[in-house]
Amino acid sequence: MYRWEITRAALEQRVFAIIRAESYDQAAATADTLLSAGITSMEISLTTPFALEAITTLTREVGSDAVIGAGTVLDAQSARLAVEAGARYLVSPSLDAEVIQTGHRYGLPVFPGVATPTEMVRAMELGADALKLFPASAYGPAWLKDVCAALPQAPVLPTGGVTLTEAPEWIAAGAVACGVGAALARGDRDVVAKRTADLLARLADARD
């Protein structure tokens, strides 16, 4: 797949799940629950023990049914390891040119972290495929709406403290998709499935 195709697949539902766990088993169980609930894009944070192994296993198991990315990719070395593990996209809380270059060298889209309009423009100049607004909890949908009025071409992904209630508001304000963590995966399978279906429906309506 081309980078733009991976980006589209990763953000198609207007939400991607963020898995940051204390163990490999916990990460695998969370991913399994989210996949069964219908989530088709998830980022495994490299702060998770054995995150690379989890990425490799999940990518092999889900095939084309979901897109598995690597999160908290801080430098070129981490980016290369994520590529080798089978990650389909790279996400970072910071803006690092070498991470973008490494991802692109191997055909992967990269979503670096930004926090200001200046950083957004810089990231786009470096070729970022989408922009992770982090931490989103420090801003708000109204702020993003103002930014998008000046930078309508910026593909913004609010992440970090995004609630299930706020996620559709971010989309309505101009975000391409939102990154959501524990708020989405908490509970048993039935609870997560219901919560996910409700969120996906509200996200689909947010910019129709």
Automatic annotation (TrEMBL):
Give a yes or no for keyword Lyase in this entry.
yes
Q: Which GO terms describe its molecular function?
A: (4S)-4-hydroxy-2-oxoglutarate aldolase activity; 2-dehydro-3-deoxy-phosphogluconate aldolase activity
Which CDD domains does UniProt cross-reference here?
KDPG_aldolase (cd00452)
What superkingdom heads the lineage? Bacteria
**Which pathway, per its entry?**
Carbohydrate acid metabolism
> By its UniProt entry, which Gene3D superfamilies does this protein fall under?
Aldolase class I (3.20.20.70)
The top EC class is: lyase
> Which key words tag this protein in UniProt?
Carbohydrate metabolism, Lyase
SUPFAM superfamilies cross-referenced by the UniProt entry:
Aldolase
* Record PROSITE patterns: ALDOLASE_KDPG_KHG_2 (PS00160)
Q: What EC number(s) has UniProt assigned to this enzyme?
A: 4.1.2.14, 4.1.3.42
Give one Pfam hit by family name: Aldolase
The entry assigns this protein to a family as follows:
Belongs to the KHG/KDPG aldolase family.
Assembly information from the UniProt record: Homotrimer.
Q: What's the protein name? A: 2-dehydro-3-deoxyphosphogluconate aldolase/(4S)-4-hydroxy-2-oxoglutarate aldolase
| Organism the protein comes from | Streptomyces zagrosensis
